[in-house]
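stage 2 :: seqdesign
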């Protein structure tokens, strides 16, 4: 497994000279979030405001977040030919499947957070690879994607937590820019997470191949 500094270095190398689109898609994603919030305010009345925002967020922002997350996976794989909005709305192409994945992961995490904060955080990291797995394995059900993510993240939840934590300095500096700096920090973080997934996937494949070799030798 690559060390945190190596994953971040690999992410910086991918972004070197290619910051424009990652920053733009981050800006567009944030912009859509603001628009959705404004529409929610217009549609809601009185006490229904929170409920309307919650439902719209589930039905619109979560699938959009799915596409936003996957953009950075496709970015490091040099799949950069489509328009930014095409990437961002990728989750709506197979809306039923996307919704089942994002909602099931959301519900599971929410239930764990109801139990207690720490178990909720642990499970959030256990489910962290779910969207990537769903993209790479469209034949799998939402439950299977979540289960495979938990298996992939076994023994690596702390690694991903420390990777995320390593950006805290940049996030604090971004606050001084009234949040504008997050337009650059966010792509850096998500590119690093995509690299983390690719590293885990490679490690899993190598382990599987070694296991097949051992079984073949035994037979």
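stage 2 :: out
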């Amino acid at each position: 497994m690559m060390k945190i500094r190596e994953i971040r270095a690999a992410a910086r190398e991918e972004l070197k000279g290619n910051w424009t689109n990652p920053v733009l898609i981050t800006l567009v994603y944030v912009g859509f979030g603001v628009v959705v919030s404004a529409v929610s305010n217009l549609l809601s009345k009185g006490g229904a405001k929170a409920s309307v925002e919650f439902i719209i967020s589930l039905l619109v922002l979560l699938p959009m977040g799915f596409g936003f997350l996957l953009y950075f996976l496709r970015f490091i794989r040099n799949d950069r030919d489509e328009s930014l909005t095409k990437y961002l709305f990728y989750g709506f192409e197979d809306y039923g499947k996307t919704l089942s994945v994002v909602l099931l992961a959301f519900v599971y995490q929410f239930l764990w957070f109801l139990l207690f904060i720490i178990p909720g955080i642990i499970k959030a990291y256990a489910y962290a690879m779910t969207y990537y797995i769903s993209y790479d394995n469209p034949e799998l059900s939402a439950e299977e994607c979540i289960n495979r993510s938990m298996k992939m993240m076994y023994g690596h939840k702390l690694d991903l937590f420390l990777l995320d934590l390593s950006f805290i300095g940049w996030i604090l500096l971004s606050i001084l820019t009234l949040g504008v700096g997050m337009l650059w920090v966010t792509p850096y973080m998500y590119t690093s997470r995509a690299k983390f997934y690719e590293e885990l996937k490679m490690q899993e494949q190598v382990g599987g191949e070694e296991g097949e070799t051992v079984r073949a030798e035994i037979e």
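stage 3 :: structure notes
- The chain is about 80% helix and 0% strand.
- Residues 210-219 have pLDDT under 50 and may be disordered.
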